[in-house]
Amino acid sequence: MGKVGLISLLIAALAAFVGERIVNFRKITLASRELVQNHLPNCITLKNMEYGSEDITILADGRAFVSTGLKYHLLPSSDIPGKIFSIDLKDPRIKPVELRMPRNFDLESFNPHGISVYTDPSDDTIYLFVVNHPQHKSQVELFKFEEEDHSLVHLKTIKHELLHSVNDIVAVGVDSFYATNDHYFSSEILKCVVEPLLAQPWTNVVFYSPEKVKVVSEGYYVANGINISPDKRHIYVVDMFDHNVHVLERKEDNSLLSVKSVALGSLCDNVEVDPETGDLWLGCHPNGWKMYMFDPKDPPGSEVIHIQNIHSEKPVVSQVYADDGHVIMGSSVAATYGGKVLIGTVFHKALCCDLK
After folding, report:
1. Which residues are registered as beta bridge partners of 171?
2. Averaged pLDDT, 191-211
3. Rounded to whole angstroms, how far apart are CA atoms 8 and 352?
4. Model pLDDT, residue 189
């Protein structure tokens, strides 16, 4: 075989490989899924959330924290820096209030992603952990919440080589947490092109404390949302591309032991936990292909999934909300309080709906 023939053969083999990988990627992202509308009653659009509400977490007293303005891997975004809002869900006005940021913090590059709240049991101080991507890097910002003047005090920035592509975080102490890395590579082109095509289980979960940083769970296609059970004994990790949520048992040394996984049938993002019932609530992407190939004429839809009795032999998985993208695009989180659910998105608006 001549040189030209060999080159032609290699090009044909590469084209066949890329074609097969694209077909596989479409399968993973549920590209052929058609969504049936399943709306909730009395939904209102929250003000000041026009540039996304990627993560939402709610305290037991009804105070919600929301991260907005995420700029992430080829998805639509604005040039406006990220912000953190709070919402008092006991107030019938459901009014988001922007939290005042400290002057010594770089607001221009603030690019918030996942968030978590830890309340210190010794003095009720509220600490807010925020995944931040300045210049598309990964770090964690630790703030103290000042309720009287609706402000955040920046305590420190946490960086570590193991926290190289952080998506979400769950705090377990005043300066310790579990975090998911949603990519294996740090390079943007490798993240956006190579990893989706290869679709390998290369991502992981990291435990961080000032004394010890270590990988505690791995083998996820896209480790995404993470949260903790009300009794603090289990960690929940969403694998977006594997369409499931993993249940892991915490050990005394903060390592994690896999217990089981629960199928979701959707590309789920963040996971929130009801502090009273232990139920899981997930914001999901019913057709992830539409997220990657964004077309406003054929927008990506939204889906909210509810899991009851997750530790039983037969967890109950149900769809609570579904929209084809004409009301709300790209849902990433769902959090409940007082008979209502807040639905946040990666780059679109946020809703507050009554539960049936």
Report:
1. 177
2. 94
3. 57
4. 84
What's the whole-model pTM score? Answer: 0.96
Q: Cα separation of 99 and 53, whole Å?
A: 14
Q: Which amino acid makes up residue 226?
A: I
Catalytic residues: 113
- How do residues 205-236 score in pLDDT, each as one tens digit? 999 999 999 999 999 999 999 999 999 999 99
Rounded Cα distance, 296 and 121, in Å: 46
Give me the pLDDT at residue 10, please.
82
Instruction: Assess contact for 149 and 98: CB atoms under 8 A.
Output: no
Task: Give per-residue pLDDT as tens, 281-303.
Answer: 999 999 999 999 999 999 999 99
Q: 17 in helix, strand or coil?
A: helix
| CA dist., res. 65 & res. 67, Å (int) | 7
Each as own residue / partner, the long-range contacts of residues 31-38 (CB below 8 Å, 24 or more positions apart, any chain) are 31/287, 31/288, 31/289, 31/290, 33/286, 33/287, 35/286, 35/287, 35/301, 35/303, 35/322, 35/323, 35/324, 36/322, 37/322, 37/323, 37/324, 38/319, 38/320, 38/321, 38/322, 38/323
pLDDT at 97 over 80: yes
Which residue type occupies 331?
S
Range list of H helices, the chain: 3-28, 188-189, 195-198, 288-292
Q: pLDDT-derived band of residue 15, with 50, 70 and 90 as boundaries? A: confident
Give pLDDT, residue 6. Answer: 79
* Residue 340, beta-bridge partner list: 337, 354
**Residue 28 main-chain phi, psi, to 5 deg:** -60, -40
* Distance between CA atoms of residues 35 and 350, nearest Å: 20
Nearest Cα residue to 300 out of 258, 333, 345: 345
For tokens 């092109």, the residue is 193
Instruction: Kindly give, in sequence order, each residue whose CB lies less than 8 Å from that of residue 121, ignoring residues fewer than 6 positions away.
Output: none
264 three-class SS: coil
Task: Quote the Cα angle for 343-245-201, to 5°.
Answer: 120
Sign of the Cα pseudo-torsion (268, 52, 114, 128, in order): negative
Q: What is the DSSP letter of 100?
A: B
